[in-house]
Amino acid sequence: MSSSKFANYLIVLAESLREERGPELAYLLKPTGEHGKTLVKDFRNPTRQTMSYYEGSLESPWDEIAIQYVLVLSNCARKRALEAFKEECTLVSLFLRFFSSNSGWTLPALFSILRDLRDLASDADHEAASRGQDNTANMEEAARIISKAFSSCVTDRQSPLAESRKWGVYYVVGLILKCYFRVRRISLSKNILRAIDANPDIPPLSSYPRSHQVTYRYYIGMLGFLNEDFAKAERELTLAFYNCYTGAHSNQERILVYLIPLRLFRGHLPSRELLRRFPVLDDLYTPFITAIRTGDIRSYDASLDRFERRLVDLNLYLTLEKARELCIRGLFRRVWIAIDKSTRIPMSMFHAAVQTADAETTSEEAECLLANMIFKGFVRGYISHEKQMVVLANTNAFPRLVDRPTPYALLQ
User: Fold this and answer.
1) Which residue has the higher pLDDT, 92 or 35?
2) Rounded Cα distance, 103 and 100, in Å
3) DSSP assignment of 8-45, as one string?
4) What's the Cα-to-Cα distance from 91 to each of 85, 144, 174, 251, 329, rounded to whole Å?
5) Structure pTM?
6) I want to staple 237 with a disulfide (CB 3.0 to 4.6 A). Which of 77, 119, 221, 230 is the partner?
7) pLDDT value at residue 332
8) In whole angstroms, what is the distance from residue 358 CA to residue 68 CA?
9) Per DSSP, what are the bridge partners of residue 391?
10) Which residues of 360-389 are buried (b: 16+ CB within 10 A; e: fewer)?
């Protein structure tokens, strides 16, 4: 079984390898390329047995890689996602044999086939789910194989730094973390992060392409958020957002979904200009932000009920529920302003304000809310329970949220 088109493909592939043209090699291994569609038409139903005719046509392992490429193409064209993923796994494993003994010129091809591997794993999991089978096994397998690529990048001790495989470290780590998040196995991230810390000869993150930095910082920020290290989460997500390409609208939105609520606790409310750029976030967060600005507890609670399902899916419900205290602070501050910022205010006035949100709130409950505000540093003063009087500090009675030394204490 011979094919002139496949023979031409092998010639072009051999030239790319000989001249070390990484981007061209990446293109030649892409299942969605135009040359791939041509090869699919040339081979009606290729199998490993029928393709064995081409064994030895290129130096090992490239003869096997070329054969695997055709098998991947064939299964993709026939919408057989599980089979395509298995063939791509074999292709990547063969490529890693070549990659581990070469320098950084091969990185574009590595990045390309690992992206394809992850995408095919996602398709395979969807196909498995439609059959009622395990719908995470393929993505977990993809993460395992991509981890081998990470090891090959980290262990480059021979190439000059400018040509080192180490320049692929953070891109590959980003792909691994994407896989772990997709299958909700984020605890496995610790192993890969430990490996980075254990290799001090990896160039600093700031030396890598900005796209690699943004992806890595986003996932480190997300890990911080989920592990309740909110200061670290805000720091990493802020850096990810400011370094994100301005044209990558969906990536910026993905970052802001978690950065906006974290910044709320620091007293930084997003501007209308920012929210207008992201209609999805505008719809989600504007009701909460407006309620915080006006101290409208009733509206805040209504927004929590309205967006409950969405917030739960994003792991944000508890965060926004705790941010309700910012709204209560806003309400009490409006009471203080309404009576000309007096330092002595009857408890009944705060009680009446809280009743605008819930008419059934008792005076004891209102007093408890105010006591919490004082305890958490939102209000400076004390309550005279006997006289039912609130005595506020002469200066800075309602400290600015931005000046609080521990803004994330609310979330602990």
Assistant:
1) 92
2) 8
3) HHHHHHHHHHHTT-HHHHHHHT-TTSHHHHHHHHH-SS
4) 10, 15, 21, 30, 59
5) 0.90
6) 221
7) 93
8) 67
9) 344, 382
10) ebeeeebbebbeebeeeebbebebeeeeee
